[in-house]
Write a structure and sequence with these properties.
Elements (H helix, E strand, L loop, with lengths): L1 H10 L3 E5 L3 E7 L15 E6 L1 H11 L3 E9 L2 H12 L7 E4 L5 E7 L5 E6 L8 H5 L2 H6 L2 E4 L5 H13 L3 E4 L9 H4 L4 E2 L3 H8 L6 H13 L4 E5 L5 E4 L4 E4 L12 H14 L4 H15 L16
Parallel strand pairs: 1-4, 1-8, 2-6, 4-5, 8-9, 9-10, 10-11
Antiparallel strand pairs: 2-3, 6-7, 11-12, 12-13
Helix pairs in contact: 2-10, 8-9, 10-11
Length: 310
Amino acid sequence: MAGFSMCKVMQAKPKILVIGSSNMDLVIQADHFPRPGETLIGGNFSMISGGKGANQAVAAARLGGEVVFLAQVGNDPFGQVNLESYEREGIDTSLIERNPDLPSGVALITVSESGENTIIVAPGANAGMDVDNLKKAASKFAWADVVLLQLEIPLEVVTEAARMAKAQGKKVILNPAPARSLPAELLENVDIITPNETEAEFLTGISVSDISSAALAAARFNASGIQKVIITLGENGAFLADGNTEEIIPTQRVKAVDTTAAGDTFNGALAVALGRGENMNAAVTFALKAATLSVQRLGAQTSIPYLSEL
């Protein structure tokens, strides 16, 4: 019976609805970041499918989720390449629209020798998303176990998506990146928020440097209506406050090659683990393992691991 139960668990795929951005990442490796006015001769150049929404959708699909991705791309070669990439990952792309008036989103990324990165994003078609896109996806909100959101698309779309998901009784995860001021009507419909230290400080005004300051930041989120807070801390793991515990969950320390998609890998993995019924501690531990693998590889979606690797 134990073997049969394990088989049933392995076959169960959590249903994840990801609503967010799709970009083409143009990546250059360099010894260091250029100073104002400085021109550098860089190293390798890569063109890699990216965007926070897309990265999280790919992570969720590779790590065991059944994924629907709601997004918008341009009617251009970048958009076509990205669509084909998502389909190869087994992602349902039926809700991805091609905007005839806006180009696909593009991110210009520089990766330093230490593995850190700088990113500038031209949103393109991501900025063309509106609430009407969500209305066409109503049946998928009912279908999903978890709805995963970020902030690279218009804020009114994210806010309405959270409201629709909550109305259906779904678990809502918000990765508040890139950081911006958030309306109360969004926060009150979020179950779990997953900022990094910089985003947590921007949103709460508290500099996160240890468990005490992380707990203070988490309390600010609690006051806005969010019960569960996960603050990712890079190589130091993640701080978890879920109403039952406040603790830092450690991660394995490795040499980082590129941190570009580490947070997205974490969030996609977290959605899968929670969707299959893991408790918060186990879900965060799973997500940290996935993110740790991702930073040891170059690129966004090229760095995201598969479930078999964990």
